[in-house]
Specification:
The complex is a heterodimer of chains A (217) and B (108). Chain A is mainly alpha-helical and 217 residues long. Chain A is 80% helix and 1% strand. Classes of the chains: A mainly alpha (217), B alpha+beta (108). Chains A and B meet through helix 1, helix 3 and strand 1 of A and helix 4, strand 1, helix 5, strand 3 and helix 7 of B. Strand 1 (80-82) of chain A pairs antiparallel with strand 1 (35-39) of chain B, so a sheet runs across the interface.
Chain lengths: 217, 108
């Protein structure tokens, strides 16, 4: 192995060690659970309360994630700032994600316009004959939107577990839209939170607080 | 002695930077070379060195002008951020170049 490869490995290991706490897994698991509130269509009709509750739950999830990173991870693991390679990757990720979001917004805009146009609406309804086929199409599009964004994030963040998270999130969105049962995404969210929690406890064991390990600052 | 003088590849071994050559310092420098900066806790976790050991090596690297130390406070806790100086980066690159040359010249 060349020296250049060794240095790359040192940097990659150092970077990936920042994911050892499992907090991203827990956070995305909570997001999936929040999304189940957002997408669920109650029999009484979809209300803005869904959006308000989901946003509130997402805010709580992010606050927990932020606090855990600040008060639990950083004091144990230490602080690090990565070099130009990571900064460039971050910028590239932002560019790609912006492109994906732009495409999604254009698709959403065109879909809305299509539904509002009676001629297009009739043609689409004619093509997607049954309600079942309509739900299946929307569920597939929804999961594709989620999987594309999350896969890109996992790739550019050098986060291998991110691919699993992307697949689970896509499955959750698909089931949420297609079956309209919040139980499935909640179950999938739990499946993401469990490994995250195991990693988190392993992290606490591996990285005690500097004081606990008998060090002084 | 005349043998050493007559063999440039062996002589180059004696020219290796001893500050960088020590394994623990080499590990710290390699890590700092690939990142921008880190605090003591992060370096300790990554290198597996103890607090006292790392502190001693850091002092040597600081004396040689190879690292820059930035002391600050995060809330009420003191925080020491370390980064490789330009001189340190050059010394590390030069050390790697020399080591590569040494091993390239050694017979298999």
């Amino acid at each position: 192995m060349s020296t250049q490869l060794d240095l790359k490995e040192i940097e990659r290991k150092a970077f990936r060690s920042t994911y050892e706490d499992g907090l991203w897994d827990i956070y995305f698991g909570l997001i999936v659970i929040c999304m189940s509130i957002f997408i669920y269509r109650p029999a009484s009709g979809y209300s803005p309360m869904n959006i308000i509750l989901a946003l509130l739950a997402m805010f709580v999830a992010y606050s927990l994630f932020w606090a855990a990173k600040k008060y639990i991870t950083v004091p144990r693991m230490g602080q690090v700032r990565f070099g130009d390679i990571r900064k460039k990757k971050k910028t590239t990720m932002a560019v790609f994600l912006s492109f994906v979001v732009l495409v999604q917004l254009i698709l959403l805009g065109l879909t809305t316009l299509g539904w509002l146009d009676p001629e297009v609406s009739v043609r689409v309804n004619g093509f997607l004959k049954s309600r079942d086929l309509m739900d299946l199409t929307v569920a597939l599009i929804g999961s594709l939107i989620v999987v594309s964004g999350m896969t890109l994030t996992a790739y550019f963040s050098d986060f291998p577990r991110g691919y699993f998270i992307a697949a689970m999130m896509a499955l959750a969105v698909f089931l949420m839209i297609y079956l309209n049962q919040p139980a499935y995404p909640i179950l999938i969210g739990a499946l993401m939170i469990i490994p995250g929690t195991v990693l988190f406890f392993r992290f606490l064991k591996k990285y005690p607080l500097p004081g606990e390990a008998g060090r002084d600052e | 002695m005349s043998d050493i003088k007559g063999n440039p590849s062996i002589a180059s071994l004696t020219e290796l930077d001893r500050v960088v050559h020590e394994p623990a310092r080499l590990a710290v420098m390699a890590l700092l070379y690939v990142i921008d900066s880190a605090d003591f806790t992060f370096l300790m976790n990554q290198t597996g060195l103890t607090w006292g050991n790392l502190s001693a090596h850091m002092s040597k690297l600081e004396e040689a002008g190879y690292i820059e130390v930035e002391k600050s406070f995060k809330g009420r806790r003191p925080n020491t951020s370390l980064r490789l100086s330009t001189r340190g980066r050059t010394a590390f690159r030069e050390y790697v170049r020399k080591m590569k040359q040494v091993f390239k010249d050694l017979p298999a």
